[in-house]
Design brief:
Blueprint (H helix, E strand, L loop, with lengths): L7 E2 L1 E2 L2 E6 L10 E7 L5 E6 L8 H13 L11 E4 L9 E3 L5 E2 H8 L5 H20 L12 E4 L2 E4 L4 H5 L19 H4 L6 H17 L6 H5 L3 H10 L10 H10 L11 H13 L16 E2 L7 H5 L16 H7 L5 H4 L10 E4 L9 E3 L3 E5 L4 E5 L5 E5 L9 E2 L4 E5 L4 E5 L5 E5 L9 E9 L2 E9 L5 E11 L4 E7 L13 E2 L3 E5 L10 E6 L5 E6 L12 E3 L3 E6 L2 E6 L5 E6 L9 E3 L2 E5 L4 E6 L5 E6 L12 E4 L5 E5 L4 E5 L5 E5 L13 E6 L2 E6 L2 E6 L2
Antiparallel strand pairs: 1-11, 2-3, 3-4, 4-5, 5-7, 6-7, 8-9, 9-10, 12-43, 13-14, 14-15, 15-16, 17-18, 18-19, 19-20, 21-22, 22-23, 23-24, 25-26, 26-27, 27-28, 29-30, 30-31, 31-32, 33-34, 34-35, 35-36, 37-38, 38-39, 39-40, 41-42, 42-43
Helix pairs in contact: 2-10, 3-6, 3-9, 6-8
Organism: Streptomyces malaysiensis
GO molecular function: ATP binding; protein kinase activity
InterPro entries: Kinase-like_dom_sf, PQQ_b-propeller_rpt, PQQ_rpt_dom, Prot_kinase_dom, Quinoprotein_ADH-like_sf, WD40/YVTN_repeat-like_dom_sf
């Protein structure tokens, strides 16, 4: 007689547990259940803590934290997270929109043996490509295992993010900690080291070894049974020395390199049948009434079904796993029922990827180059940081920029001093050249760089009379930094000469210079110059534009100039000067609006952030922070992640990360500063793929984004 299984909850939040995904006995890392969402009637996959650790308070906290962090995983094969248990739940859990799906052991059970080499190659290439993307965003999975790898009709979903971190803290040699699949645990983590990207590669090698052999070990005898074409690559993935393992991108390329037979684009028929039967066994149902109880209850789980019955549980029709095939629609359809309540659940702020003390007072916003390098300028030095690790690449204290540094498109930057400007390598910090013709003696002097596009930069110059006084001869210069050649020079009339802090707007065909409000000219007046020739195109006043500073304006798609005044956002058509739309705000918008895609975002003095459609001016959403600004004159700043998926709202108390789709809260954060900055939450000062930079005083933090 089969022993009675331990009682476990039959309801978790809005989910009723209706089946199990664990095949071939209890899982080593966590429990995975099929559950029905009472709000939508759809089936989902719930991951629960390992049974032996469910009562450990520390494990539960770490499990819940990693479940929240798993929301940050992006990409085609990222398992879409629907819900995460709230902090008050007795048992933590995470719900994935991954149904129908089979854990890899169930896939092999359905096949009665290992997978064909062609399927292993496709499975491995997709997993490796996904892991490479996560590593590029500063994320280490630390939970890859056969049981955590779900196979769906359109491809794999590596669940179990952070299980190794949840199951064991850093420490001395501990072997395989409870709650972690020992088979795929990298040897360095057994010795107490922190999870690393190389550890994910080891775990991937173990998963593919299992898929190709059906054996849950990586011993020499098992490796000898691998298909010959996979043997050498997986041996490198499973190297004891982490430094000898290939990068996941390399693994993906090598797995794709071998010409595949025509059948490579399909899962084995037995797996397709199992997925189809699973889908038929748990069809979508009409959602229960809203009054239905949602409390968690416990009951004895019926005796487990046979191994074969567990894996026969899928998706109707043809099931493909083709490389490059457009299989995204499958999991999107599974997540269509995601409710506003689920997406608006308050999240835990992600842990910083790194922290760097700048040492001196920052002199300008960090400049980010190609998502790889951050160039920071303080009162003491100019320093280049690796954007992914926070490690210093180089630092120089012999550059004396008298105005802002400017990035060029060829991996260099411009550092202007009082008599010349230098072109410096971002990679090494070495001088690439010095331009001395603008020394203020023999020629005009540069008093501000306006910006650069690729290797072309624009700056303002002025001439001095023999006694050192200004001659009033001001110009804007277009300069080729590679050929070290002046392309054009255009004299500037007095209202547009600037004071060293001019905010120029660079359009595809024009350079727009704002008036400084001198000589009776209104500050909303602009001079437009042709970018290629420097020819004056027009000067124009924009009516009703009453904001005090041109820094509060930006160019948006559709040839629009966005401006903000006391209680209004306005959009003007640049070519005609006509007002296109206006949006009233409750408070004063003193920060600069931000445009991304077809939306513009702004935060007012009441800590309310607005999302407005660029084309029509129609409000998309509006959200007020729970931590309002202290006074109506306090600046409220806004930033948008590189992908456009997250909007950052900054207040006196915290930084809030909002979903750009509907304004719902993703997480809140207040990073610690030093000294007088200790109670200040920080300010977003840059975004790159997968990363947001936050500065608090002299401390620079990198947080994962999206």
């Amino acid at each position: 007689m089969e022993p009675q299984r331990q009682a476990e909850p039959t309801r978790l939040g809005p989910y009723r547990i209706i089946g199990t995904l664990d095949a071939g006995g209890p899982a080593d890392d966590a429990r995975r259940r099929i559950a029905r969402d009472d709000r939508t009637g759809r089936a989902a996959v719930l991951m629960l803590p390992h049974g032996t650790l469910a009562d450990d308070p520390g494990y539960r906290v770490r499990f819940r934290s990693e479940a929240e962090n798993s929301r940050r995983l992006t990409g085609r094969w990222a398992p879409p997270v629907i819900d995460v248990a709230g902090p008050d739940a007795d048992l933590p859990w995470v719900a994935y929109a991954c149904f129908p799906a089979l854990p890899l052991p169930a896939v092999l059970a359905a096949c009665d043996g290992p997978l064909p080499e062609s399927t292993v190659r496709v499975l491995g290439a997709e997993l490796a490509h996904t892991i490479a993307n996560w590593h590029a965003s500063g994320l280490v999975h630390a939970g890859i295992s056969p049981q955590a790898t779900l196979v769906m009709a359109d491809g794999p979903r590596p669940t179990g993010y952070g299980l190794a971190r949840a199951a064991a803290l850093d420490g001395p040699d501990r072997g395989a900690p409870l709650g972690v699949d020992a088979f795929s645990l990298p040897p360095e983590q057994r010795a107490g080291e922190r999870p690393s990207p190389a550890g994910d590669v080891y775990a991937l090698g173990a998963v593919l070894c299992y898929a190709a052999t059906g054996r849950r070990d990586v011993a020499e005898g098992t490796r000898a049974t691998l298909p010959e074409a996979l043997r050498e690559l997986l041996a490198r993935c499973l190297a004891q020395d982490p430094g000898q393992r290939p990068r996941p991108g390399t693994v993906a390329r090598e797995l794709r390199a071998v010409p595949a037979p025509e059948a490579v684009g399909r899962l084995p028929d037995a797996v397709a049948t199992a997925l189809a039967r699973q889908a038929a066994a748990y069809p979508a149902q009409v959602p229960m009434a809203a009054s239905a109880p949602a409390e968690e209850t416990s009951a004895t789980v019926p005796p487990a079904r046979s191994r074969r019955a567990v894996v026969v549980g899928g998706l109707s029709g043809a099931v493909g796993l083709a490389l490059g095939a457009g299989g995204v629609a499958g999991w999107r359809a599974a997540g269509e029922g995601r409710s506003r309540e689920a997406s608006a659940r308050r999240g835990i702020a992600p842990a910083p990827l790194w922290r760097y003390d700048l040492g001196g007072e920052p002199q300008q916003t960090p400049l980010l180059w190609h998502g790889r390098t951050a160039l920071v300028r303080t009162s003491d030095a100019v320093t280049a940081l690796n954007l992914r690790t926070g490690k210093r690449i180089w630092s120089r204290d012999d550059l004396y920029p008298m105005s802002a540094l400017t990035l060029l498109g060829n991996g260099t930057f411009v550092s202007p001093d009082t008599s010349a400007f230098s072109v410096v390598s971002l990679a090494t910090g070495r001088m690439k050249g010095v331009e001395r013709r603008y020394d203020g003696v023999e020629g005009p002097a540069i008093y501000q760089f306006l910006g650069a596009v690729k290797d072309i930069c624009w700056f303002l110059t002025r001439k001095y009379a023999s006694g050192g006084t200004e001659s009033g001869d001001h110009a804007v210069v277009c300069y080729d930094a590679v050929r070290r050649k002046e392309i054009w020079r255009t004299p500037l009339p007095a209202p547009y000469q600037g004071d060293g802090t001019t905010t120029a707007l660079l359009l595809s065909t024009m350079v727009l210079l704002p008036s400084q409000g001198d000589d009776g000219e209104d500050a909303s007046s602009y001079l437009a110059l042709d970018r290629r020739s420097g020819r004056k195109l027009w000067t124009r006043k924009f009516p009703k534009m009453k904001d005090e500073s041109a820094k509060q304006r930006l160019v948006a798609p559709g040839d629009l100039l966005i401006s903000c005044d006391e209680h209004m956002l306005r959009a003007y058509h640049i070519a005609s000067g006509k007002e296109r739309w206006q949006v009233a705000t409750k408070g004063r918008v003193s920060g600069t609006p931000v445009a991304h895609g077809q939306a513009v975002y702004a935060t007012d003095s009441r800590a309310t952030t607005y999302a407005v459609d660029v084309g029509s001016g129609s409000p998309r959403w509006r959200r007020r922070s729970a931590a309002p600004l202290e006074s109506s004159w306090t600046r409220g700043d806004t930033a948008v992640s590189h992908s456009g998926a997250t909007v950052f709202q900054m207040t006196d108390a915290e930084i809030e990360a909002l979903d750009a789709t509907d304004g719902s809260l993703r997480w809140r954060s207040a990073l610690a500063g030093k000294g007088r900055q200790a109670a200040v939450p920080g300010q977003v000062v840059g975004v790159a793929p997968g990363i947001v930079l936050v500065r608090n005083g002299t401390i620079l933090y990198a947080l994962p984004a999206d």
